[in-house]
Amino acid sequence: MRTPITTYLSLAVLLVLLVALPTLADLANYPAFTSVATRVLIYGIAAASLNFVLGFGGMVSFGHAAFFGIGGYVVGILYQHYSLGEPLFGVFPGSNQLLVTVPLAVLVSGAMAALIGALSLRTGGVQFIMITLAFAQMLFFLFVSLKTYGGDDGLIIRRANELGDLNLRDRQTMYYLCLTIAVSFLFLLWRIVNSRFGNVLIGLRQSERRMAALGLSAYRYKLAAFVISGMGCGLAGALMANFLRYVSPDMMHWTKSGELMVMVILGGVGTLFGPFIGAGAFIMLESLLAAWTENWQLGLGFILLLLVLYTNGGLQALFSRLFRRDA
Amino acid sequence: MTLFLEQLLNGMQLGVTLFLLAAGLTLIFGIMGVINLAHGSIYMIGAYAGTYVAATTGSFLLGIPAGLAAAALTGIAVEFLVVRQLYDRDHLDQVLATFGLILIFNQAITMIFGRQPLFVGLPEALSGSVELLPGLFYPLYRLAIIAVGLLVAVGLYLLINRTRVGMLVRAGSTNREMVRALGVDIRLLYTAVFALGALLAGLAGYMAGPILAVQVGMGEQILITTFVVVVIGGVGSVKGAFYASLLLGVTDTALRAYLPGLLRQVMVGPEADALGAGISSMGIYLLMAIVLLIRPKGLFAGST
């Protein structure tokens, strides 16, 4: 697949803009925008991970908030044990080092994704949707009942994790960290999607039977994709925990799974950049509507409904359709 | 022993409530191939409309038609305006559109009734307890719920297996296209099934009113449990939904009743209570995992 030079050029421009964003936000006297952008990047990572199974693999998971929450809780729990000086399970010491907590968060959410995926992928279609939802809800209830880790109220992480000499409390530093991770993550996803594995996955979405006839085990490929996707969500959750310095069961509430899904569909299913656009659109929409009326969910519901019923393929498709009409 | 029987009845009461919801959900899925997240919202609307009428008129009986009508009309409107366009779409679109509906309904109810939960007293005729066995007193109202649920189950069985409409429903869930090709107005059938499902959900919501608080979000909570029922029973199977509802209702109630006590023998009181509550809320999902390991399609898949 040859990519035209204009794509590279616009990507370069986009990257420059993103790097300049905090400075621009300060210049425009609206420094809070940097935090909004950080949130978009983090949700973008989560949505892109969901899109990997949903858009490329055709697995409609309605429980991805679980992995997002687990990623967050790994950071939160490690921090709590670190600050109290009590080892976890009496063996593992806690930690506040980003280079320890984030990879661990990714690993743990990957392991959970392997467990949940192994069970859920035994079925398909509508059962898969319901089962992923149910498992996420199960974890939600588990964390609500874990009083040691804050239960309903969640865990406050008094100080963000440490990474060398960087101060992650600083808005701009956090933004650049998330930007670096988001760009690397997107690059990785792009490599995976265009690899043999990615082709098999897309083939599976189109026809599982055909792939089976080619001698490929659908289950294994789907499970691997599900685990990768869970790890991505865990990564996003770990970053979110550092960004908000707070984790709560709300991170894995089923509406969060729904929101991630909305971001994916807003941006366009099965596209690489779509989820980031979708995350941006969702967060803008949410803050705009929330500023306008306290009944913002009503507006969001209607927008979602209209979007699903009358556009096929989200904002990206809408834009390209509009532009094509102009041309 | 009396405690055990009492919990068993509580479990059955939860079970039949779940069945009223699951029957509609599984029929809607089995026949139309639509996954309807807004089913819980219809349950909530039935509860609100019925409870509101019952509270203003002071008559529990008047609440019944109000709740049922509100639920059924909402169901018909939802089918007509939204779900009808989703029959040929993939599940993702169905999930998102009905997720949008949940947001709309929840917010609309909040705007109309506010955030305070509604409460309604028990109807006087049903407010007492009866002595089922020597020493076993059980609230009459809960018994009535169980009775209504079982009656509906029998009614549905007769409707599906003994009537012409039921025959169409069974045919529709086996092969939609063939039924249409034979000249049946499948659209009307869809609307009817959707309305029936909504009606049952509304009934469940209204009956749950005096026991639970009628509040925004009540629908989603039970919806997810209903999903577990539908998955365990086998998607599309009303019989499966019935057995799975009772199984789940009893399991859930038993875990909640006994687990904290068991845990308290090995842990400190409050912690045992919290962990017990947590694990008992997880119980039904574990049950689902086990069923899936043995029968990935559910216990009664493929039969109606």
Question: What do these coordinates show?
Answer:
The complex is a heterodimer of chains A (327) and B (304). Chain A has 327 residues and is mainly alpha-helical. Chain A is built from 13 helices and 2 strands; from the N terminus they run H-H-H-H-H-E-H-H-H-H-E-H-H-H-H. Chain A has a domain at 32-251. Chain A has a two-stranded antiparallel ribbon with strand order 1-2. Chain B is an all-alpha fold and 304 residues long. Chain B has one domain (2-123, 140-294): ABC transporter involved in vitamin B12 uptake, BtuC. Helix content of chain B is 75%, strand content 3%. Chain B contains 11 helices and 2 strands; from the N terminus they run H-H-H-H-E-E-H-H-H-H-H-H-H. Chain B has helices at 2-32, 39-57, 60-81, 91-113, 140-162, 164-174, 176-181, 186-208, 218-233, 238-264, 269-294; strands at residues 129-133, 136-139. Chain B has a two-stranded antiparallel sheet with strand order 1-2. In chain B, a hairpin with a 2-residue loop joins strand 1 (129-133) and strand 2. The relative contact order of chain B is 0.19. At the A-B interface, helix 5, helix 10 and helix 12 of A face helix 4, helix 9 and helix 11 of B.
Walk me through the topology.
The complex is a heterodimer of chains A (327) and B (304).
Chain A: H1 5-27, H2 32-56, H3 65-84, H4 98-120, H5 125-145, E1 155-156, H6 171-193, H7 196-206, H8 208-213, H9 218-244, E2 246-247, H10 254-267, H11 274-292, H12 296-310, H13 314-326
Antiparallel strand pairs in A: 1-2
Helix pairs in contact in A: 2-6, 2-9, 2-10, 2-11, 3-4, 3-9, 4-9, 7-9, 10-11, 10-13, 11-12
Chain B: H1 2-32, H2 39-57, H3 60-81, H4 91-113, E1 129-133, E2 136-139, H5 140-162, H6 164-174, H7 176-181, H8 186-208, H9 218-233, H10 238-264, H11 269-294
Antiparallel strand pairs in B: 1-2
Helix pairs in contact in B: 1-5, 1-6, 1-8, 1-9, 1-10, 2-3, 2-4, 2-8, 2-9, 3-8, 5-6, 9-10, 9-11, 10-11
